[in-house]
Every structure is written in C-alpha cells, then in structure tokens.
Amino acid sequence: DAKTTQPNSMESNEEEPVHLPCNHSTISGTDYIHWYRQLPSQGPEYVIHGLTSNVNNRMASLAIAEDRKSSTLILHRATLRDAAVYYCILRDNTGTASKLTFGTGTRLQVTL
Amino acid sequence: DTGVSQNPRHKITKRGQNVTFRCDPISEHNRLYWYRQTLGQGPEFLTYFQNEAQLEKSRLLSDRFSAERPKGSFSTLEIQRTEQGDSAMYLCASSRLWRGGLETQYFGPGTRLLVL
C-alpha cells in the first residue's frame, strides 16, 4: 500500500478553520484518499473520501492537489467535539481493496 | 439505527488464559473486519470476512488467534494462551461492498484487553 505522511499533532482554537495536511507522493492512479477520525475511547469513523476533485460533505471538505501527491482535510469551524486523531488512508479502487491501513495520524487538539 | 456492537467492552485476564470477543455488525453488511490497536498507534488489520468466508489474514494473526463468522452475521475472535503482548484494543468493523469496490467501514467501540 502506498504510504501517507501526516504531522503528529496540531492545535486549533474553537470555531476557527482547521487544515489537516497529508502527503502521499507514491499514490497510484487507482487510489482513493480516505479520511477517518477516532474520537477518544471510540472506534474510528469515516469522514470523507475523494479521488481527484475536491469534495464536501456535512462533516468536512477534502482538497486534493492537482498532482494528487497531497491532500488537505478542512474542518470549517472546529468544535471541542472535533478533538480526535485524524487518519489519512489510501485505498485502491480496483475492486480488490479490503483492509484499511492506518498510520499514526494527526492528533487534533481544540481549545477554547 | 443500530451500529456495530462489541462485547465485552473490557476484559482483564491472566496470562495463559483463553479469551473470546464477539462482534455484531450492522445488519446486512456482508464484510466484517477485525483490527488491533495498541497505545499511540493506529489500528492494525488482523482479518476479514466476506459473508462467512475468511478471505484474508494478517501475519499478525498468530496460530493462537482464531476468528469465525459461522452464519455470515456475528463474528467471534478467540485468543488462546494469552500473552502480555496481546494487551490492546480489539476493534471490529463492518461494511457493505458495493459494485465498484468502494465501501465505508463502520467501527464498533472496541474491546479493551488487559493481560496480567
């Protein structure tokens, strides 16, 4: 599986936007970029995914670089409930993908 | 809307004992995954089922570990002769595989195992 690189931790003030970066320079043409997050004492939860175009949903936005070697998860207004570990994961789209390969993710701290 | 449930949520056992964990996936989800997570690390894949067939096992899944999904619904993960290194959070996830291969995995709250 292609590897992703994320900062170990980031901090944000509540109600401010947060940009969580992810580098994936060895991404292949069939890899989707997925983001999951893990709140304290919970299992991971799906946030968003994309292939080439920027994506928006009710939780976040995903901005994908034109060369697809990096992406950024955007939380438009961070709240205390967004404090979690955020994982950027590449997933093959050829129909054979199964497991998720997690890295160590970015621990997001949100303060008042 | 019932999510993925796991039982027990916590388990403390002595080294050498056997333990069994249960996972109940979201209804009609045909795929079921087991992951293990140690402190400060992301989850690591152990094994997964499509319906009742176990399709992939990680090298992490030693011969002391066995997983079953007998009727394609709930699954059990058994660890025999537990070791202190087995102490971890065991996570279960389920998904429904759509055409095209994309799927979202829904995780349970996990079972935290402590081996003394």
Which structural class fits the helix and strand makeup of chain A? mainly beta
Oligomeric form = heterodimer
Helical proportion of chain B, percent range: under 10%
Compressed to H and E, one letter per element, the order of chain A equals EEEEEEEEE
Number of helices of chain B: 0
- Write down the overall geometry of chain A: globular
| H/E topology pattern of chain B | EEEEEEEEEEE
Shape, per Cα inertia axes of chain B: globular
Helix and strand arrangement:
The complex is a heterodimer of chains A (112) and B (116).
Chain A: E1 9-13, E2 18-23, E3 31-38, E4 45-50, E5 55-56, E6 61-64, E7 70-75, E8 84-92, E9 106-111
Chain B: E1 5-7, E2 10-13, E3 19-24, E4 31-37, E5 44-50, E6 53-57, E7 65-68, E8 75-79, E9 88-95, E10 106-107, E11 111-115
Parallel strand pairs in B: 2-11
Antiparallel strand pairs in B: 1-3, 3-8, 4-5, 4-9, 5-6, 7-8, 9-10, 9-11
Describe the protein in words.
The complex is a heterodimer of chains A (112) and B (116). Chain A is mainly beta. Chain A is 0% helix and 46% strand. In chain A, the strands form 2 sheets. In chain A, strands 1-9-8-3-4 form a 5-stranded mixed beta sheet, with no helix packed on it. In chain A, strands 2-7-6-5 form a 4-stranded antiparallel beta sheet, with no helix packed on it. The mean pLDDT of chain A is 93. Chain B is 0% helix and 48% strand. In chain B, the strands form 2 sheets. In chain B, strands 2, 4, 5, 6, 9, 10 and 11 form a 7-stranded mixed beta sheet that branches. Chain B has a 4-stranded antiparallel beta sheet with strand order 1-3-8-7, with no helix packed on it. In chain B, a hairpin with a 2-residue loop joins strand 5 and strand 6. The A-B interface holds A 32, 41-46, 49, 85, 87, 92-105 and B 4, 31, 33, 35, 40-45, 48, 55-56, 58, 91-93, 100-110.
